[in-house]
Structure formats: structure tokens, C-alpha cells
Amino acid sequence: MKRCACFALLAAALLLIEQSCAYRYTYTTGLPESATTITAWKHHWVWGWVNPGCTVDLKKMSPTGVARFGSYESFGNWLCALVTIGFYAPETVYVVPPLVPQSGA
């Protein structure tokens, strides 16, 4: 029983360390924003040290242009990190298209 409690304490400590590295960022282009938000998951492995194909194609997510984009950790992302003890830790990337589509987008 004592060994199980020790393992649970270690798992909780690892999870707290992993979750303390969560962050959120937002970039704004200055264009008027529409009410639509497009989201996708960006995948991280081994507590974020391995990021295969970590680039996000904003043009593919929003062909009409970008008014604002960023990234955050949602509850679903956190739950995945909790279940896998951080071995798989995704984050949510979001794009807000402009109110008026951009011609050069």
C-alpha cells in the first residue's frame, strides 16, 4: 500500500511539473475579426521535447486570411497529458479569419 501511495505522489509531481510549462500566446494582424474560430491540435511528445511536424499551415486553416491566431492548452489537451503522464501533450491552435476576405491570401 505504501508503494502505491509513493507511485501516486511521484505521478502527481510529474504531472504538476509538466503542467507548469503550459502557456498561451496570441498574435493579432490588425484586421477586423469575424465571429468564426477555426481550431486544430498540435502534437507534442515526451513532455514537449519531440515535436514531429509541429508547423501549422495558417493558409490551409484559413484560406481567406488571418486576423488573429494563437495557441493554448484546453481541457481536452490537459486530459490527454494527464492520462499519458505527459508523454503525449497536445495543444490547441486557433485561427480567426478576417471579417472581409483578403485578396492576396
How would you sum up this structure, described in words?
By secondary structure, the chain is of the alpha+beta class. It has one domain (2-96). 30% of the residues lie in helices and 19% in strands. It is built from three helices and four strands, in the order αββαβαβ. It has helices at residues 2-19, 58-61, 75-83; strands at residues 25-28, 38-42, 68-72, 91-96. It has a four-stranded antiparallel β-sheet with strand order 1-3-4-2, with no helix packed on it. The mean pLDDT is 82.
Indicate how many domains the architecture comprises.
1
- Describe the largest sheet: 4 strands, antiparallel
Task: Compute the number of helices.
Answer: 3
Query: Percent of residues in beta strands?
Result: 15-25%
Oligomeric nature of the chains: single chain
Based on CA atoms alone, the radius of gyration comes out at 18 Å
Spatial sequence of strands, sheet with the most strands: 1-3-4-2
Features:
alpha+beta, four-stranded antiparallel sheet, 30% helix
Structure at a glance:
By secondary structure, this protein is of the alpha+beta class. It has helices at residues 2-19, 58-61, 75-83; strands at residues 25-28, 38-42, 68-72, 91-96. It is elongated.
List the helices and strands and how they pair.
Elements: H1 2-19, E1 25-28, E2 38-42, H2 58-61, E3 68-72, H3 75-83, E4 91-96
